[in-house]
Automatic annotation (TrEMBL), chain A:
Keyword Transport: yes
SUPFAM superfamilies: P-loop containing nucleoside triphosphate hydrolases
GO CC, one annotated term: plasma membrane
Keyword set, alphabetical order: ATP-binding, Nucleotide-binding, Transport
UniProt membrane topology term: Peripheral membrane protein
Gene Ontology BP terms: peptide transport; transmembrane transport
Family: Belongs to the ABC transporter superfamily.
Protein name: Peptide/nickel transport system ATP-binding protein
Automatic annotation (TrEMBL), chain B:
Listed CDD domains: ABC_NikE_OppD_transporters
GO molecular function: ATP binding; ATP hydrolysis activity
Keywords annotated in UniProt: ATP-binding, Cell membrane, Membrane, Nucleotide-binding, Transport
NCBIfam families hit by this protein: oligo_HPY
Subcellular location: Cell inner membrane
Coarse class of the protein's main subcellular location: membrane
Record family assignment: Belongs to the ABC transporter superfamily.
GO cellular component terms listed in the entry, alphabetical order: plasma membrane
Organism whose genome encodes this protein: Jannaschia pohangensis
Name used for this protein in its record: Peptide/nickel transport system ATP-binding protein
Length: 369, 322
């Protein structure tokens, strides 16, 4: 299928310092990234803070200009778009921000916040048509039409993120870029928004690009994943493949570092030492060699080129073939039948099944005093 | 250790924390887990006596520490115990370190104050602590300022400072939430190692069930200022009883297993004043019944596991109709 968005060798360098006390420097926030996004898929970009993932997201829809490289959306240049072409791009590509507290204007009612993109991108709508559309959008994200008259401070974080999503949907985009759309939310609310984004993506045939640091969330939401480290993509593959068979030591380390609720006291896991080097002064060769347990002299001198494995996985590691990274184990649940019955009961109840009491003789219960 | 603790802020109709009991043994890590606003952080702050006495009221509660019992309604923890016998580390290491002082001086200050030793001894202790928390080149770090360190290094400094006086109890409030996962793994391992070496009791506050599974010996699940379920971590994770605990676990996306749609908890946490009487979770609970308007007493199950739900175990009391 023809890609909906393509990035070729995109770089973004920020000059720093040069003041009275500091040496001039260059931060290579994004350093030669190429991507190709297929229509309808959910593509995730993951990495730790400072890896350049948010900068990349902003480059893709030209919230900031690239230093070099091309971004093409639906056959049209993004990097050089102006006037009508740029405003069309703004209609077709929308952004959801991380912080639902600072990304909504506190002085605008929810109706105006969601209606504003319509004023710009669908100026022919009458006032009542616009109001009807706003109501429909609010309903689509699980809010009520009467919420249109309220202001952002009256809503919780999860509801505000829903408002942000409604606003992004208003112009009828084909691609939505979400920069950490659920990471500011509590887990129970996060799960609601994860489900909402999944439903919307499927129902509206949207293409989603998600930026996140939480690999478990990404695994749940995306079809393909790219892992970034110090401005470069180090590994890319389908979600199932990448999580089961990581082909880059960094991906493996990231996966191993996440505490897993199903895997208690896993003290024996391999940890990587040290921290990500400063992008002001990146190490020569492979940027990960300072923390990599497999690093050799080759890694310290030569930048690894992206290589494609036989199953279509991309990895930028000199030694991926000799690493012998064993597939990650899946932990089997040791829950008793009673517990499993209870969890099943909970799931059915939240899905709206009618719950009735059963005659019980309250066995082995002892009230605490 | 903590008995029947309640906390109310001035101007609020309901208690933010209601009748909370907590027990931590020496050499054990207790995790308090819950979502924002469940009262886990204020409980910790109150234990350390860090809440302003003019706005925070403690209508009930006592604490037994090392054989000494304190009535928290009238007296707090004596200030000479704070920072020595009991120490705390916070979520945001940048805001809890003083940006204007060198790291070595900040650690040495607390040692000097509590141990009454000389400046040079305190500084030697600071160096020893920085080495123990695994900070690279500790000699140079002594004279650096907090802004010269990364987030993970600052958290190591905070830990060094908290442990400099050999506390018996460490309270860690979301110590790794602001850190990247690879750094989080390092810090959790450090806390666990130090805790094992010193045999201190630790209360760790977190919202991350993964962190609980990784470090905790026992866990207390909080919702709306009440403890809804508590027990050994294996017991609570394998055999969750309270609908909130079940919902919380089902909401967490997993790294392994099938990628199914997430089961959620409907609605959001209400404000303290809007909390329901009785079981505070009932406004979001799929099993709520009229009975839930009275507060359920904790039911003790096997193996030190207790749950505050009228219908526990759910599968024995309730079923899907039809």
């Amino acid at each position: 299928m023809k890609p909906i968005l393509e990035a070729q060798n995109v770089t973004k360098h920020f000059p720093t310092g040069g003041g009275l006390f500091q040496k001039k420097g260059l931060v290579k926030a994004v350093d030669g990234v190429s991507l190709s996004i297929t229509p309808g898929e959910t593509f995730a970009i993951v990495g730790e803070s400072g890896c350049g993932k948010s900068t990349l997201a902003r480059l893709l829809m030209r919230l900031i200009d690239a230093t070099t490289g091309d971004v093409v959306f639906d056959g049209k240049q993004v990097t050089t778009a102006r006037g009508k072409a740029l405003s069309d791009l703004r209609r077709d590509v929308q952004f959801i921000f991380q912080d639902p507290f600072s990304s909504l204007n506190p002085r605008m009612s929810v109706g105006r916040l969601v209606g504003e993109p319509l004023e710009v991108h669908a100026p022919d709508l009458s006032k009542s048509e616009r109001q009807a559309k706003v109501s429909a959008l609010l309903a689509q994200v699980g809010l009520r039409p009467e919420h249109a008259d309220r202001y952002p401070h009256e809503f919780s974080g999860g509801q505000r993120q829903r408002i942000g999503i409604a606003r992004a949907l208003a112009s009828g985009p084909r691609l939505i870029i979400g920069d950490e759309p659920v990471s500011a939310l509590d887990v129970s609310v996060q799960a609601q928004v994860v489900n909402l984004l999944g439903d919307l993506g499927r129902d509206l045939g949207l293409t989603l690009i998600l930026i996140a640091h939480d690999l478990a969330v990404i695994r749940h939401m995306s079809d393909r994943v790219a892992v970034m480290y110090l401005g470069k993509i180090v590994e890319q593959g389908t979600t199932d493949d990448l999580f089961e068979r990581p082909r880059h030591p960094y991906t493996r380390a990231l996966l191993d570092a996440i505490p897993d609720p199903d895997d208690r006291g896993s003290a024996s896991r391999a940890r990587i030492e040290g921290e990500m080097p400063s992008p002001l002064n990146p190490p020569p060769g492979c940027a990960f060699h300072t923390r990599c347990p497999h690093a050799t002299d080759l890694c310290r001198t030569k930048v690894p080129m992206p290589q494609t494995t036989p199953d279509g996985h991309m990895t930028a590691c000199h030694h991926w073939q000799d690493l012998g990274l064993t597939p990650r184990q899946t932990t089997a649940s040791s829950r008793s039948p009673a517990t499993q019955a209870r969890l099943e009961l909970y799931r059915k109840a939240t899905e709206g099944a009618k719950i009735i009491p059963v005659a019980s003789k309250t066995p082995d219960r002892e009230e605490l005093t | 250790m903590l008995r029947n603790f309640s906390l109310r802020f001035r101007g609020q109709g309901a208690c933010v924390v209601e009748n909370v009991d907590l027990d931590v043994a020496a050499g054990e890590i207790l995790c308090i887990v819950g979502e924002s606003g469940c009262g886990k952080s204020v409980t910790a702050m109150a234990l350390m006596g860090l809440l302003p006495s003019d706005t925070a009221r403690i209508p009930d509660g006592s604490m037994t520490f090392d054989g000494r019992t304190f009535d928290l309604t009238t007296e707090g923890i004596p200030s000479d115990m704070r920072g020595s016998d009991m120490a705390m580390i916070f979520q945001e290491p940048m805001t809890s370190l003083n940006p204007a002082f060198r790291i070595g001086d900040q650690i040495a200050e607390s040692v000097e104050r509590h141990k009454g030793c000389s400046r040079a001894d305190a500084r030697a202790r600071a160096l020893e602590m920085l080495r123990r928390v695994g900070l690279p080149s500790p000699e140079q770090r002594l004279d650096q300022y907090p802004h010269q360190l990364s987030g993970g290094q600052r958290q190591r400094v905070m830990i060094a400072m908290a442990l400099a006086n050999d506390p018996r109890l460490l309270i860690a409030d979301e110590p790794t939430t602001a850190l990247d996962v690879t750094i989080q793994a390092q810090i959790l391992e450090l806390i666990r190692d130090l805790q094992r070496d010193t045999g201190m009791g630790t209360i760790m506050i977190t919202h991350d069930l993964g962190v609980v599974a990784e470090v905790a010996d026992t866990v207390a699940v909080m919702y709306g200022g009440q403890i809804v379920e508590t027990g050994p971590v294996a017991e609570v994770f394998e055999n969750p009883q309270h609908p909130y605990t079940i919902g919380l676990m089902a909401s967490v996306p997993r790294l392994t297993g099938p990628r199914a749609r997430l089961t959620t908890i409907p609605g959001t946490v209400p404000t303290t004043d809007a909390m329901a009487e009785g079981c505070r979770f009932r406004t979001r609970c799929a099993f709520a019944a009229p009975l839930c308007a009275t507060r359920p007493a904790p039911t003790r199950l096997t193996g030190g596991h207790a749950v505050a739900c009228h219908f526990a175990p759910l599968e024995q009391h309730l079923a899907v109709a039809g």
